[in-house]
Amino acid sequence: MRQGSTAGNDDGPARERGGVLEVFLVFLRLGLTAFGGPAAHIGYFHEAFVLRRRWLSETDFAALIALCQFLPGPGSSQAGFAIGVQRAGGIGGGVAAFLGFTAPSAIIMTTLAIALTSDAGALQGPLAAGMLHGLKLTAVAVVAHAVWGMAQLLTPDRARATIALAALAIVTPGGVAAQLLAISAGGLLGLVACRNVVVDGGPVTGRGPVSRRAGTVALAVFAGLFLLLPAAAGLWGGGFSLFSAFYRAGSLVFGGGHVVLPLLQAEVAAPAGIAPDVFLTGYALAQAMPGPMFAFAAWLGALTPAAPTGAMGATLAVLAIFLPGQLLVYGTLPFWARLRANPRAAAAMAGANAAVVGILGAALYQPLWTSAVFTPRDFVLAVAGFLLLAVWKAPPWSIAALGAASGALLAMAPV
Description:
Layout: E1 2-3, H1 20-33, H2 38-52, H3 58-70, H4 75-88, H5 91-116, H6 126-154, H7 158-171, H8 176-193, E2 198-199, H9 212-236, H10 239-252, H11 260-272, H12 276-287, H13 296-303, H14 310-340, H15 343-372, H16 376-390, H17 396-412
Parallel strand pairs: 1-2
């Protein structure tokens, strides 16, 4: 069976390349509207770049997600960076995607850190809580739509459906190690169960804008900064210390999102003397932001008591925490593409792609469903959002606006 043969035009080759400005504007819209955290972002990306604009095929998208699951750093931001590289044909597209997706939440978090830390209570209340809850329900709908679409194309037979179910069972109890185990197990099972699968389409980066030499340089830069920044921090302190701490956090955390919080607490907040209640206030605010969870670094960077602080500290913190993940995915892309061209690797990738469906299904349950769907009204709103996406083909940003408005109205309505 040819993987993706049931997809029709959804699994065809990616469209021709676009410009850096196009990439920036598309990701800026996502940066303003993609609520719900890393799992939801995968759903938003799937809707925007596979179903709506067809910048990637289903198989390339799943392979890209599998790659980002293997690497440390913010997985959804790494996927966005790689999509930008593919679309614009070089690192400029990746930078444009990063800026568009990250800048809105980073700017908001920086502004709040500077202006509102002394009056965090002003950011709370039933109306704000209702809007946040509505956005969580939007995330449930978006991820459910992504699971539904990817399952049709990446688990078209019993073998791959079984791999997806096994991955779901492995990952549902939680833990980043479980995700890595599920993808690894899916790849190994694919060697046996998916030997007859032929993967259509080109490499994960489309026409291959990243050369092997450029990839090697990026990996060398990543390793050099990881080794040298602590020494620079010890010698000169200041901005080097801030940059080193956040770079280390972005380099060592697999899974991204909420997983980075304990490391930031230990590596940044505690040494800087940022009080636990201030740390948790920023964390709570980050839940209400669109875009990447790692933008929480802007809050901490702006509040560090030692210079640089304020907007400069926030900027350094955001750049430092995202940089290692982007270097890793840029450096790995050309080798990942070559690996996928091998027939045995194609079989393993088919199994890994099926495991990605299971992992996304587990994310739909935990943390999205368990943190958002509490009442029959919640269930109805989540299903309504799913149907608007799947049947009426409504854009995700409109579902987010509708979810926030519905949550606010329900918060003010009598129980």
